[in-house]
Amino acid sequence: MSDFKQLHVSALMGANWEAPDWQQLETTRKGEWLLEAHSMTERLQACCATLDVEVLGLHQCDMETLTSSERELLGHEGCLVREVVLSGDNMPWLCARTLVPMSTLTEKEEDIAQLGAVPLGQRVFTQANARRDAIEVATVIVKGQALLARRSRLWVNNKPMLVSELFLPHAPIYQEEG
């Protein structure tokens, strides 16, 4: 899985994030996925019998390794980096990289560092005050294939984290409407 991680997480880190064209996207199937304001976990679970999470990496990074746009969205501090793949019915659908500022991992949110195979959305969106903002989108090329990605800031108890998601080739976002 290390080649998979290298390829897909690197693609996410190199994405050219842009504000979405809401008017154009919100009437399309792909737009419904990219602009999802609630839990991506719930949306994926609705498309399969089993949704599994595989943790690819969990480590800390210094503020200096964050991009300027990541610092603008999260502040100037080190973060916990969580990299996972979500698979629906044993098919990889989503590669995600989450930056969680160390100040977010306090009090009720300490457990976020220990989620393991529990989807982040399942943990975050159980809180009444959870919300998503700063949605950005990108198209990245992986092995010659254009894949859709999005980045958004999640808030839980007024504490931020930044989630970047790469929709893999077999993800439901690419399926035609039935």
For the CA atoms, what is the radius of gyration? Answer: 15 Å
Mean pLDDT: 93
Give the amount of beta strand, in percent. Answer: 35-45%
Shape: globular
Global structural class: alpha+beta
Write down how many β-strands occur, each being a DSSP E stretch of 2 or more residues. Answer: 6
Q: What is the H level of CATH, i.e. the homologous superfamily?
A: Chorismate lyase-like
Number of helices: 6
Enzyme class: lyase
InterPro entries: Chorismate--pyruvate_lyase, Chorismate_lyase_/UTRA_dom_sf
Subcellular location: Cytoplasm
Binding site for substrate: 40, 82, 120, 165
What is the strand and helix layout of this fold?
Elements: H1 2-13, H2 22-25, H3 29-34, H4 40-45, E1 51-61, H5 68-74, E2 79-88, E3 91-101, H6 120-124, E4 131-142, E5 145-156, E6 159-167
Antiparallel strand pairs: 1-2, 2-3, 3-6, 4-5, 5-6
Structural notes for this entry:
Helix content is 22%, strand content 37%. The chain has 178 residues and is α+β, with helices and mostly antiparallel strands. The protein has one domain: Chorismate lyase (3-Layer(aba) Sandwich). A six-stranded antiparallel β-sheet has the order 1-2-3-6-5-4. The longest helix is centred in the first third of the chain and has 12 residues, at 2-13. It is globular and about 45 Å long. The model has no long low-confidence stretch (mean pLDDT 93).
List its salient traits.
178 residues, alpha+beta, Chorismate lyase, six-stranded antiparallel beta sheet, 6 helices, 22% helix
